[in-house]
Design a protein that fits this description.
351 residues, alpha/beta, Pyrimidine Nucleoside Phosphorylase, Chain A, domain 2, 2 domains, seven-stranded mixed β-sheet, 7 strands, aromatic amino acid biosynthesis, magnesium ion binding
C-alpha cells in the first residue's frame, strides 16, 4: 500500500518504511534529492536503502528515485530512435561482456546505441573496463559523447561522469555491502533516455518493478532474466521476459531451443579480466562460433526485435520477432559490420 500524503522529513520516511508501507513517488524523490544534494548523512542514506530493501522496493519508489537522479545528472540528446542494452549485474556468474558486445552488434545492424554503464562492481570486467581494453576512449567531455553517437552510431555514457552527485551515496553503499535499490538505477537513468531499453535483471523480484517504471514512463522496453539467474538471456534454459509496449507490461518466456540455438551451460560464457573479455569480443567479430556468439546473437536479437514492429502478444509472435532480430544480428557479425563498427568507434573517440 502507499501511504496517504507525502513524507517530507526523515522520521516520517523511516516510520513509513518501518511500517512496511510504500512511499509515493514524490516522497522517494524528496529523499533522493537530499542524497544527491549531499544533505543526507551516511546513516540516513543507509537507513533509507535498508528500509526499502527490507520492505521491498515499489515501482512508484523507483520511479521517484530515478527521476530525481536524472534531474541531478548531466543530460544529452541524441536525435532519432536510439537503444540501450545493459545488464544490472549481481548474478555472480562472471560471464564475458555479453550486453556490451550485443550493443555493438545492434549498432552495426543500424540502430543508434547509447549505452550507459560503469566499471565492474560484482563482475570481473564492467562495460567501461572492456571498452577501454578494446581501445574506446571514455575520457570525453559530455558534449562530445553525444557527437560520437552521430559519427559512430554508438556511444557510451560513463556513469561516474554523467552522475557526479551519486558520489554522495558511495560511503553508505560501501558500508552496507549488499545490493540495494541503487543497483537497479543504471538502466533507468541513462542520460540520453533512449527510445528503447533492453535490460537484464538477475533479481527475479526487481525485474517487474524495473519494467513497471518503463511502462509508467511510456517507454518501450524488454526486461529479462535467465531462469537460471543470469542477468542476460541464457542458453542453459528458458528466460523470463517482461515486454513493455504502450504503457503495458506482459510477461513471456523465451526458449532458445525454439530459436534454433543449442543448449549450453552458463559456465561456457565465463570470462576473465578486461583484456581477456576484449579478446573474446574481437574473436566473435572475427567469426568465432560457439556459446559466446550464440549468447550475443540471442541478446542482440531481442534488443533488435524491440526496435521493430510488434507482431502481437502470443508466445509465437515473440519468438518470431526475436528470431528475425537474430538474423539481423548474425548478418551484422558475419558481414564484418560489427568489426568495422568497433574500429570506427575507437577512431572517432580518439580523433
Amino acid at each position: 500500500m502507499t501511504t496517504a500524503g507525502s513524507p517530507r522529513t526523515w522520521p516520517d520516511v523511516f516510520a513509513t518504511l518501518v511500517a512496511r508501507e510504500d512511499l509515493d513517488a514524490d516522497a522517494a524523490a524528496w529523499v533522493m534529492d537530499r542524497i544527491m544534494s549531499g544533505e543526507a548523512s551516511s546513516a540516513q542514506v543507509a537507513g533509507f536503502l535498508m528500509g526499502l530493501r527490507t520492505k521491498g522496493e515499489s515501482t512508484e519508489e523507483m520511479r521517484g528515485i530515478a527521476a530525481t537522479m536524472l534531474e541531478h545528472a548531466h543530460r544529452i540528446e541524441v536525435p532519432g530512435p536510439s537503444l540501450d542494452i545493459v545488464g544490472t549485474g549481481g548474478d555472480r556468474r562472471h560471464t564475458v561482456n555479453i550486453s556490451t558486445t550485443a550493443a555493438m552488434v545492434c549498432a552495426a545492424a543500424g540502430v543508434t546505441v547509447v549505452k550507459h554503464g560503469n566499471r565492474a562492481a560484482s563482475s570481473s570486467s564492467g562495460s567501461a573496463d572492456v571498452l577501454e581494453a578494446l581501445g574506446v576512449d571514455l575520457r570525453l567531455p559530455v558534449a562530445r559523447v553525444a557527437q560520437v553517437a552521430r559519427e559512430a552510431g554508438i556511444t557510451f555514457c560513463f556513469a561516474q561522469v554523467f552522475h557526479p552527485s551519486f558520489r554522495h551515496a558511495a560511503e553508505a553503499r560501501g558500508a552496507l555491502g549488499i545490493g540495494t535499490a541503487f543497483n537497479f538505477l543504471g538502466p533507468l537513468t541513462n542520460p540520453a533516455q533512449p527510445t528503447y531499453a533492453a535490460v537484464g535483471v538477475a533479481d527475479r523480484r526487481m525485474a517487474p518493478v524495473v519494467a513497471g517504471v518503463f511502462a509508467e514512463r511510456g517507454r518501450d522496453a524488454a526486461v529479462f532474466r535467465g531462469d537460471d539467474g543470469l542477468d542476460e538471456l541464457t542458453l542453459e534454459t528458458t528466460s523470463s521476459v517482461w515486454w513493455v509496449r504502450g504503457g503495458t507490461v506482459r510477461e513471456a518466456r523465451l526458449d532458445p531451443a525454439r530459436l534454433g540455438l543449442p543448449v549450453s551451460p552458463t559456465d561456457a560464457l565465463r570470462g576473465g579480466d578486461a583484456a581477456h573479455n576484449a579478446q573474446v569480443v574481437r574473436e566473435v567479430f572475427a567469426g568465432a562460433r560457439g556459446p559466446v556468439r550464440d549468447a550475443v546473437v540471442l541478446n542482440a536479437g531481442l534488443a533488435l526485435a524491440l526496435t521493430g514492429e510488434d507482431r502481437g502478444d502470443r508466445d509465437e509472435d515473440l519468438h518470431a520477432d526475436v528470431r528475425a532480430g537474430m538474423d539481423r544480428a548474425e548478418h551484422a557479425v558475419d558481414s564484418g559490420a560489427a568489426a568495422t563498427l568497433l574500429q570506427r568507434w575507437v577512431d572517432v573517440t580518439r580523433s
